[in-house]
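Ticket reopened. Same input as before:
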Amino acid sequence: MLLAVIIFNFILLSLVPGDIADTLAGESGGASQEVMDDIRRTYGLDRPFHIQLATYVGKVLQGDLGTSYYFNLPVTELILGRVAPTLLLVVTALVLAILIGTLFGVIASRKPNKLFSHFVTVLALVGFSAPVFWTAFLLIVLFVAMLEIMPLSGLVDPTTPRGTLAWYLDVLHHLFLPVLSLSSIYLAAYSRLARASMMDVLGSDYIRTARAKGLGETTVTYKHALRNAVIPVITIAGLQFSHIFSGAVVVETVFTWPGLGTLAFESILRGDTPTIMGILFFSAMIVIIVNLLTDIAYRVVDPRIRSARNA
Amino acid sequence: MTEYPTTKPDSAPGASEGSSEVVHIERPVVEFLRMYMRNWSAVVGLLVFTAIILAALFAPVILAVDPFEMVWMPFTPPGQDGYVLGTDNLGRDMLTAIVYGARATLVVGGSAAALTIFIGITIGSLAGYYRGWVDEVLMRITEFFQVLPPLLLAMVLVALFEPTLTTVAIAIGVVTWTGVARLARAEFMRIRELEFVKAARSIGSRDRRIIWRVILPNALPPLIVNAALTVGVAILFEAALSFLGLSDPNVMSWGKLIGDNRDYLLDAPWTVTVPGVAIFLTVLAVSLIGDGLNDAFNPRLRER
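Engineering reply: fixed in the latest deploy. New output:
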């Protein structure tokens, strides 16, 4: 699958009109044919297509994603430098969305016709319909302009000394709004999903058995039902991971968060092909890893899957 | 493979299987409309969506101004000097921009959704009907597209080719079809085992006829509900792309309006919030329609 991604990226991006020589020549205000040919030779662009492809695939498999045309740095290094802020943002948003979403869903499922349940329905609709950058801007207007308690953008105040406790707290402070914007969509979706699957599970026979045994409603809900109701949430969260990554691109550009999304967006505008290919490949790799983790999470939550695989 | 419980409209042949109460309905379409109209939120959604379509259609009649024209001082607040929604950073009338922006949104959203559904149903039905190696190959392709972050891929596609409305619509279609394909595949896998499909096969119908005339009509209800969501997703993608400046710079759209004015958010918040409300209302209307269709197709679900 990863190999397919690499090859697809390469073919896709070699369809781009214009190459590195044009970009560099354009920046320096024109160049003679000789210089252009020389640049092409340096980057190996004069060789036949299939050889270029083979070289690229070979290099990627060794962890070398090429050199960025713009920064003149190895792409791998560039990406690794940016990956931490993105993962911090995406993982925090995802975990928050799953935890709070499931909690909302559980509370709503216990009283299906009460106010809170309707609130979850409305929340799900609003969360789906609001474009994430608009949510982000509304939050900025509220927290930055009106309440003045949140920073507008960036990862951390540059004057804070790195590595101190104040630095970590400042990162958290800056993290708040981006995470809130990004998780709002998924929180809404998961709470609706969790409510539906809780209601499904609460109607099943083994829940009736648990109740008949005289267990308290809290034990039944949180110990017996929740375990089963959370499976669809995990499934969808795992499947949607690439979507959350997409959302992060938009959120990062709004808050100028120095992550992969900002790098991807800027590289697309600059026509920095190796970096774009590198990011596409890297994000595909992360999605595949997350899918693996989802499979493992199933086994933890659902003993039936564990035994089925071993049998 | 996974078998799905049969919750299908009662008008469909073969519905008697699994469901104890078979209701015979005289006029399914009328009954369906009646079910839909009973749901007030779905009706509101339909009305709002119709209003937006009409506004987009008759934009030049309602407001005979070029939306790119500078008409008044920049950053006139809403309501002042006769500009209902104010003006933006270039002194363009926000109301005109919103009305004309509806066109780009609906055209791109609609055609991208149509493409998504077309690719999704084609791939899903072939995979679900033929199974075996066809299924294997098509599902690998689907997984491949699921692994790449959709918006990122759409951004790359638009940037590679010229940023026109057509490119944007195609890019959105190419990155969002996987969900439809999986749904169509699941439906086809379920329905192909039912009696009436076997009957069709036994009288010698060809595969093409079975896929399009026998199975597809019965697989439609969930796909139609999903189509409403697909339109919403396509509109959100269009908004995100034009917000990032990766759409046709010569066509006014809501996302572009927000993108153009984002630097002035704190001084002139209406330039950003108003187009956002437009996107939000449109997608909300579409999702209400989707929910309404879902309830009308599955009357038994409503009791939950």
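Chain A touches chain B through 47 residues (CB under 8 Å). The mean pLDDT of chain A is 75. Please confirm and we'll close it.
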